[in-house]
Amino acid sequence: MDDAADSGPDEAGIYALDSEYLECAVQVGMASGKVIRVTVPSEPDPEAATENSLLDRIDGYLSGLEEEDFSDVEVGLTVPTDHRAVLEAVRTVPYGTEVPVEKLARMAAGVDPDDEETVRTALDGNPVPLIVPDHRVRNGPSGAPPRVEQRLRSLEGL
After folding, report:
1. For the chain, is the Cβ count within 10 Å smaller at the N or the C terminus?
2. Which pLDDT band holds residue 10 (cuts at 50, 70, 90)?
3. What angle do CA 83, 84, 89 make, to 5 degrees?
4. Which of 133, 140, 135, 142 is nearest to 158 (CA)?
5. How many CB atoms lie within 10 A of CB 76?
6. How much is the pLDDT for 9?
7. Considering the domain 81-155, what is its CATH architecture?
8. Interacting residues of 50 by C-beta distance below 8 A, sequence separation 6+
9. Which residues are bridge partners to 31 per DSSP?
10. Domains of the chain: which residue ranges?
11. Which alpha helices (H) appear in the chain, and where do they start and end?
12. pLDDT tens digits, residue range 24-50?
């Protein structure tokens, strides 16, 4: 697979970097210039490209050099509408800030403020952790493995 230096509207493929901080790889799947999947395998896909502007930003974030929230990164979520509302609300939580599940339920447009089960299900099924920073939600699950979630929380002082 050819390396792509910049994200564009037609960008598609798998991009990966090795993260010393996370002690694993960060792998990003893109389609039509939107992030559709973020995984943290122990080893990156050997076919994954290694040059991408989003990977540069992720690397800066994980190295502690950038207080990054990734809120401008386009995502292609193929999840139920109520889950989308929850994940979009998570994207508004700033770097270094955490919210409890109960507050997130109130922040999610169109979601019953008492429906914590929907919030937890959406967080658990988050296909793009890190870009949709579910590690900023206190007492909720994450789409990332627990070890990675804790490292991200630690990085942001949570």
Report:
1. N
2. low
3. 100
4. 135
5. 15
6. 56
7. Orthogonal Bundle (1.10)
8. 3, 15, 16, 17
9. 34
10. 81-155
11. 53-62, 81-90, 101-107, 116-124, 146-155
12. 999 999 999 999 999 999 999 999 999
Three-state DSSP class for 29? strand
Distance CA 98, CA 93 (A): 7
CA 152 to chain centroid, in Å, comes to 10
Per-residue pLDDT tens over the stretch 115-150: 899 999 999 999 999 999 999 999 999 999 999 999
Asked if 108 and 119 count as a contact pair (C-beta separation under 8 A), the reply is: yes
Q: How far apart are CA 145 and CA 71, in angstroms?
A: 22
Pair 137, 104: CB distance under 8 Å: yes
In whole angstroms, give the CA distance from residue 158 to residue 152. Answer: 9
Report the alpha-carbon distance of residue 132 to residue 153 in Å, rounded: 13
Alpha-carbon gap, residue 125 to 40, rounded angstroms: 15
Residue 4: pLDDT above 50?
A: no
Claim: this prediction has a pTM higher than 0.90: no
Distance between CA atoms of residues 126 and 9, nearest Å:
23
Instruction: Please name the residue that has the structure tokens 């109960």.
Output: 102
Give the bridge partners for 16, in sequence order: 27
* Measured distance between the N- and C-terminal CA atoms of the chain, rounded to whole angstroms: 37
